């Protein structure tokens, strides 16, 4: 068996374009899923029952089903039955944002709940409004506590962007599988794809370990 | 918008078999992942610096590379390296197991290191061998603390098994795609598959929470 590694170098520009798309997708998704998760978490904690129940249902549903199926669902069902025409990239972002928002909301909720009731009481006693208490007392403390979990979600999101290759979004996996089909240099191209993901993901995994170590909650 | 569940009723034996395949693949890959994870986690905790570095590299690599890439590589590229083909199901279970093993090992390691050092020292001072100390003193406490994380890993294994549809493992998502393509009823079929996964995963996730709340006090020291 002979391998021809030149194919990797000649298709490197396309692979790098794909890698750029992967980074872009992960960034856009996270930027949308942080406010999304926050809204879901606040809805779940709100005293208005129907709102809290709807948010809980949304979160539990997206956490208990496979992301790859959610992407298919958004891709096939929205255009065919609800008359919504979305481009592939928009479809991918909608699927990813719904999923990551659900995970983020659990992170935020546990962060908010972890701040003791006494903090609320003390702030109220000083005459602050509920919104003020949340923004100036609770949120800054909760942020430190949710940072490690948020970082872990970021790394798994970065990996999960590979799943949108199934609806032909030209990120790293899709581009690699295309080059594989064009050139038949299966081992070389797939190994290059894995290597690129490794190069991008390994430092992130290490960074997450550092964040976990640095922001660990000490009781 | 009209809903027609006829295609689901007509092909339910086919889909039931696919559901069984999903359960089979996720169970076997969980078992493989636990076997790998227990060995790697224990060696990283007690096996000295070289083992920690080498196995740490494996764990961090699995955390860095997407499961889809691991599955595609195992199924399409690995056979070229060894010279003969492997079945999609084997490749799927191997890829899922290797990926899950890294996460299991991190859970095991966190559980083992959460038991205070004094416990080990006390056991050794009583004349136990290191192996005995781990088995009778450390593990019983650590296992309780690992339970919730390990339980949710099984739920993750079920969800991740859907990614094996990419290498044509005949599991639920793959077979749903086939029926949806034949009958032109994607809404009904994908929704039915979604409900199947939800019914499979949600009670399990809640069950693990419940179980843990009842057992949590056993793990405190």
Features:
heterodimer, A: mainly alpha, MetI-like fold, B: 221 residues, mainly alpha
Summarize the structure.
Chain A is mainly alpha-helical and 219 residues long. Chain A contains nine helices and no strands.
The percentage helix of chain B is over 70%
SS summary, helix count of chain A: 9
CATH homologous superfamily heading of chain A: MetI-like
Count of beta strands of chain A: 0
**C-alpha Rg of chain A, in Å?**
21 Å
Q: What's the CATH architecture of chain B? A: Orthogonal Bundle
Describe the SSE topology.
The complex is a heterodimer of chains A (219) and B (221).
Chain A: H1 6-10, H2 12-45, H3 49-63, H4 67-81, H5 88-113, H6 117-125, H7 130-160, H8 172-183, H9 186-214
Chain B: H1 6-10, H2 12-46, H3 48-64, H4 67-82, H5 88-114, H6 117-125, H7 130-161, H8 172-183, H9 186-215
Helix pairs in contact in B: 2-3, 2-5, 2-7, 2-8, 3-5, 4-5, 5-7, 6-7, 7-9, 8-9
Give your account of this protein's structure.
The complex is a heterodimer of chains A (219) and B (221). By secondary structure, chain A is mainly alpha-helical. Chain A has one domain: Orthogonal Bundle (MetI-like fold). Helices cover 80% and strands 0% of the residues of chain A. With 221 residues, chain B is an all-alpha fold. Chain B has one domain: Orthogonal Bundle (MetI-like fold), CATH 1.10.3720. In chain B, helix 2 runs antiparallel to helix 8. The relative contact order of chain B is 0.16. Chains A and B meet through helix 3, helix 4, helix 7, helix 8 and helix 9 of A and helix 3, helix 4, helix 7, helix 8 and helix 9 of B.
